[in-house]
Amino acid sequence: MRPLRRLALLLVLCLAPVLRGASPPLPDTPQGRRIDAFLKAFAEGTPEAIRAFIAENFAETALAEMPLDQRVQRLSGIAKQTGPLELSKLIEAAGSKPTFLARTRAGEWVEISLVLEEAPPQKIRGLRFEQSEGPNAPPPEARKSSDAEAAAAARARVADLAASDAFSGVVLMAKDGKPFLLEAAGMADRGLGVPNRADTKFNIGSINKIFTQVAIAQLAAEGKLSLSDTIRKHLPDTKIPEADRITIQQLLTMTSGMGDIFGEKFDAAPKDRIRTLRDYLGLFETDPLKFPPGAGRAYSNAGYVVLGLIVEKASGRDYHDYVRERIFGPAGMKSTDVNAPDAVVPNRAVGYTREKPGDAWRTNVYGLPGRSSSAGGGYSTAADLLAFDAALRGDRLLPRGWTDWFFGDKAAPPPALDAPPRKRSGGLGFAGGTEGANAVVESDLDTGYTLVVLANQDPPAAEALMKQLRQWLGLR
Questions:
Q1: Cα–Cα distance between 75 and 70 in angstroms, integer?
Q2: CATH classification for the domain delimited by 17-131, as one of 3.10.450.280, 2.40.10.120, 3.30.10.20, 3.20.20.70
Q3: DSSP-derived secondary structure for 153-193
């Protein structure tokens, strides 16, 4: 489904140009100097400037996890998207996660955190980019003193949002795989008066891409494909431009130059005719690339459709059958599938959309393809997504080295067979959304928290609530 772009995996930016003012001064501290170096590198924006910034400011442990050249490529792509960044506000100037609000060249707002080493010289371990409502956004809410207090706050917030018709869905909060909140609110079917339940199935949008990534990693681990393989190797008859150059890894990391499947062609297409992955090809196969393969980064649903076709070719199985048997089954995801919008599915939420607050709700059925794809649009439950996270963390879906790769950077080389296990940190964050559907999964390896918010309403219904959950748990 039409995704919500995240920069981190990238980002969704709020289009809200405002009058420009003077940037606040940066403190003469390690945190201030790292932020200053970051902003100067983005102001210049060249790969050379980005390389110099990373070499000087990143910790050796970070460069061991992702080599310099790969970090340069990734950060250069982000800098190209955002342009020079104008510092607007220091949100947190001390500690190991200095955070600031900045505005892009297009007047869009982004909150950026530098994750620093605890001990001097406090070099950078990682970066986090997140959408922002701008300087007028409400201040972050304080961390709660316990999981029980965070759950109580979440339960009250869900009730308030549901009462004002601002949220309809399910919220799950878990620690080390064990839920300490599972709350449903709103209506699964407004016409029939059916409420959402804890086990209601929701459209999860682009979260399906995680399953496609796992499928590719499984097949790579089995030697049935290589991340360096080109599209042409597996789909010899394709009409995709530069199919001889675009690699599977570029498709995974959205650096292939391919674009979207949504647009005028999709709007004009009979939705009930889009039933297989090959049915999507007519929406993008002959479109020119946005940039040469590897030269930039752009969100690409088309690329993930192609990945699904490669899964089919390499495995000899229909994509949907493959993920049922190799991912959903082993993970214990009994309520996750790829049902068509016109199928009769028990306990499935209807998606509701509207142009603006106050308008009448209408279903999103006319905006959905006849079947989901490897790029998104399947249905799942909060419990199933928690089960997927547990299976992934427990190395039940991938060999240990490939799980490490999965939780690391997907632009990194594939793991060597004799590579020692590495300490995992960070986590997984992915969002999906389209008209009438919004879903977010957050998995934090350092704390053991897993958070799931599913909504059968327009974005950012789930994402806005997820941001509050993270604040209550002290996650950034």
A1: 9
A2: 3.10.450.280
A3: HHHHHHHHHHHTTS--EEEEEEETTEEEEEEEESEEETTTT
* 3-class SS of residue 225: coil
The answer regarding whether domain 205-473 maps to CATH 3.40.710.10 reads: yes
Measured between alpha carbons, how far is 460 from 404 in angstroms, rounded to an integer?
30
CA distances for 349 relative to 183, 186, 310, 381, angstroms = 15, 10, 31, 10
Cα–Cα distance measured from residue 377 to residue 2, given in angstroms and rounded to the nearest whole number: 9
Q: What is the pLDDT of residues 143-187, one digit of tens each?
A: 999 999 999 999 999 999 999 999 999 999 999 999 999 999 999
Q: Which of 18, 222, 161, 2 is nearest to 101 (CA)?
A: 18
Using CA atoms, how far apart are residues 160 and 138, in angstroms rounded to an integer?
Answer: 17
State how far the Cα of 389 lies from the Cα of 372, in Å rounded to an integer: 21
Q: Which of 73, 416, 3, 129 is nearest to 256 (CA)?
A: 73
pLDDT digits (tens, 9 = 90+) for 397-413: 999 999 999 988 888 88
User: Tokens 């799950």 label which residue?
Assistant: 172
Domain residue ranges of the chain, discontinuous segments joined by +: 17-131, 205-473
Global pTM value: 0.79
Q: Is 113 helix (H, G, I), strand (E, B) or coil?
A: strand
> Which position has the token pair 């994402």?
463
Query: Rounded to whole angstroms, what are the CA distances from 199 to 74, 267, 327, 335, 454?
Result: 38, 32, 19, 8, 11
226 has pLDDT over 50: yes
How far, in Å, CA of 342 to CA of 461, rounded? 24
Q: Is-contact 335 383, C-beta < 8 A?
A: yes
